[in-house]
Specification:
The chain has 294 residues and is an alpha/beta fold. It has one domain: 4-Layer Sandwich (Metallo-beta-lactamase, Chain A), CATH 3.60.15.10. 19% of the residues lie in helices and 25% in strands. Strand 8 and strand 9 form a beta hairpin. The mean pLDDT is 96.
Length: 294
């Protein structure tokens, strides 16, 4: 299995001299199985260079799994070049949105309007198919099994576990560890805590024993208190998940967009120093263009 990071920044694309080493594109990850099936995780701006690479071998049959519909995870979709060429097929997988009452098709229909983009969906030359997923119900792409796992974010967000040929990877998209919104002593506290513990256990089952865990690591411990409820994790929470899940390799991603490469490396060093128990883990910062093969 091979993983390539095409976008590792969170929230907004951040190109420039301060982000050259780790990259400025927003989330997009390519996973290729040993049988050469391609699975794309999220469609941030990183999907644009990925789509150019795919044009070398046509027709393109691509399966994209969207973790959630926030802009930094979908805004590259209108620029997915194979969509403009007859004979290519894009199958888009994602969640039902209880707010809008629509399935994953809305991430294309919302963006491909003349108000936002010069080409309507009806004018695309390739074929686009939609698959709205249900938590814990796996789908097959050739030799790969992909299982969506409901995580914690202000909108429905699926993490995805991909298994193929005895190898596995789990990607969270955006995720903030669930927490009790009630204070200790509140009559609702105990019942909500039970809900939190069940949710945490389900998330851990999804990650359990993976070869590679790729997880939202947006904030430091010092930054987090002012970001509670924004739906993102910290270095501490990522280390904790990797430890409890028994992941072999942990990639920290969704890098905070205001952080320069130097600042990113500094907070990473500090986080490792503050969590000596994590030193036994293989922990890495995700880098745009980086390939991990196992």
């Amino acid at each position: 299995m091979k993983i390539k990071f095409w976008g590792v920044r969170g929230s907004i694309a951040s190109p420039g001299p301060q982000t050259v080493r780790y990259g400025g594109n927003t989330t997009c990850i390519e996973v290729r199985t040993d049988d050469d099936e391609i699975i794309i995780l999220d469609a941030g701006t990183g999907i644009f260079p990925l789509s150019q690479s795919l044009m070398a071998r046509q027709p393109v049959h691509a399966n994209i799994f969207i973790t959630h519909s926030h802009w930094d995870h979908i805004q590259g979709l209108p620029f997915f070049i194979p969509n403009f060429v007859p004979g290519n097929v894009l199958r888009l997988h994602g969640a039902y949105d209880p707010v809008s009452g629509q399935g994953v098709e809305q991430v294309m229909s919302v963006q491909l309007q003349y108000s936002y983009f010069p080409v309507r969906e009806a004018e695309l030359r390739g074929r686009v198919e939609y698959v709205t997923l249900t938590p814990e119900q796996s789908v097959r792409i050739g030799s790969a099994t992909i299982t969506p796992c409901l995580l914690n974010h202000p909108v429905i967000n699926y993490g995805y576990r991909i298994e193929a040929g005895g190898k596995s990877v789990f990607f969270t998209g955006d995720h903030e560890p669930p927490y009790n919104i009630y204070q200790t002593g509140d009559p609702e506290y105990a019942e909500y805590q039970h809900h939190i513990e069940e949710k945490d256990a389900a998330i851990l089952r999804g990650m359990q024993g993976v070869d590679v865990l790729i997880i939202d690591t947006s904030y430091t411990a010092a930054e987090y208190p002012s970001k509670i409820g924004w739906g993102h994790g910290t270095y501490a929470s990522s280390f904790d998940y990797a430890t409890r899940a028994g992941a072999k390799v942990l990639y920290c991603t969704h890098h905070e967009p205001t952080r320069s490469d130097d600042a990113l490396e500094a907070v990473f060093r500090q986080a490792l120093a503050e969590h000596p128990h994590a030193r036994g883990l293989d922990i890495r910062l995700a880098v745009e263009g980086q390939v991990h093969e196992f």
